[in-house]
Amino acid sequence: HTPWPGLIEAYRDRLPVGDDWKVVTLREGATPLLPARALSELTGCEVHLKVEGLNPTGSFKDRGMTMAVTEALATGKKGVLCASTGNTSASAAAYASIAGLECAVLVPKGKIAMGKLAQAVMYGARIIEVGGNFDDCLELARKTTAEYSSIALVNSVNPVRIEGQKTAAFEIVDALGRAPDVHALPVGNAGNITAYWRGYSEYHADGIIAARPRMLGVQAAGAAPLVLGAPVKDPETIATAIRIGSPASWNQAVAAKEESGGQFRAATDDELLEAYRLVARTEGVFVEPASAASVAGLLAATKDGWIERGSLVVCTVTGNGLKDPDTALKGVPEIASVGVDPVAVAAAMGLG
Ligand code: F0G
Questions:
Q1: What letters, b where the CB count within 10 A reaches 16 and e where it falls short, cover 10-45?
Q2: Angle in degrees, CA 107, 111, 112, rounded to 5
Q3: Least packed by Cβ within 10 Å: which of 26, 72, 230, 290?
Q4: Is 91 in the pocket of ligand 1 (CB under 6 A)?
């Protein structure tokens, strides 16, 4: 039994990594593909959750970041820069710390979850708040890195980010022995849907899978440019991770949807929160609100018949719920307060 080496070593023959490059890894990847019993029962499908919140910094971003920071180091960069709604910044900060590179993160002021900010602080990144949204941050990151060649841009507009993230599709196929019928995932800047589609397409081209899944990309209703077919100027949603009005990988996301016979869908904040609570209470998986978009999409699409009963469905849940304790605690019913009294405890449990 050899320990998991991280995704670059595991899928090296499918990734653009130089033979002499020093690999920057936190042993990301190899996340659980968890059979979701309650969701399967509820929908009449065979549902699995790809639990990406169990990556080293708690989100799927680590898959792209091991590649981006490995490349930055190998090509002699001095620092890395990203725009972020939180998870990319946490991931960039962690990988830069072990690579010995400077890291700065551009985040929309007041619109990132507390746990993500705490991560970037602890990993030693310089945090720069921008009085604008993610789209403004990304524009600033692009301009800065275009002018300063010693700074690598580690957003998903960097093609090696997508290369790293495509490995999640490989893992799913390696686990299931086939591709799912439908793959549902949250969509913000649209890098991840691009990456999954590339991963499935590469396995398909090599004859490893006979068919590719239909891609179901789910956006928050207040930040749903791909559903509307036009950028959204002032995106708004409780799911701050996907509060994005102008996705950088727009064309690739549309290609993934069209080539797969897929669909973009919007979920309201209420639907996101309902799915967020459901997946925690019934599957024991605590995700962040944006991550519940895949589950909200599954519920809606099985209800209206776009996903047929009996389908094999994978929902990617992209980030760990611990990143956003504020949203979790807003839903707390009533906290019982007792003295050192077993009778009161049993009564509070309704089992007295
Ligand atoms: N889910 C989570 C938890 C995310 O953090 C993101 C994106 C997405 C889904 C959407 O993925 O952008 O590839 O379509 N977060 C970025 C960030 C924007 O800065 O952390 P996407």
A1: bbeebbebeeeeebbbbbbbbbebbebeebeeebeb
A2: 65
A3: 230
A4: no
Residues whose CB is less than 8 angstroms from the CB of residue 202 and which lie 6 or more positions away in sequence, other chains included: 14, 166
- Which residues face 182 on adjacent strands? 214, 313
Best residue for ligand 1 mutational test, from 31, 57, 59 (most atoms within 8 Å of Cβ): 59
Nearest to 202 by CA among 47, 33, 350, 13: 13
Answer yes or no: pTM beyond 0.95: yes
For residues 15 and 161, give the distance between their C-alpha atoms in angstroms, rounded to a whole number.
11
> Looking at ligand 1, which atom is closest to the CA of residue 319?
3
| Alpha carbon nearest to ligand 1 atom 12, residue | 189
Q: How far is the CA of 124 from the centre of ligand 1 (A)?
A: 21
Q: Phi and psi of 293, rounded to 5°?
A: -60, -40
Ligand 1, closest atom to CA 187? Answer: 14
pLDDT in tens, 58-94: 999 999 999 999 999 999 999 999 999 999 999 999 9
- pLDDT tens digits along 336-352: 999 999 999 999 999 98
Confidence check: pLDDT of 200 > 90:
yes
Q: Is the CB of 106 under 6 A from ligand 1?
A: no
pLDDT in tens, 11-36: 999 999 999 999 999 999 999 999 99
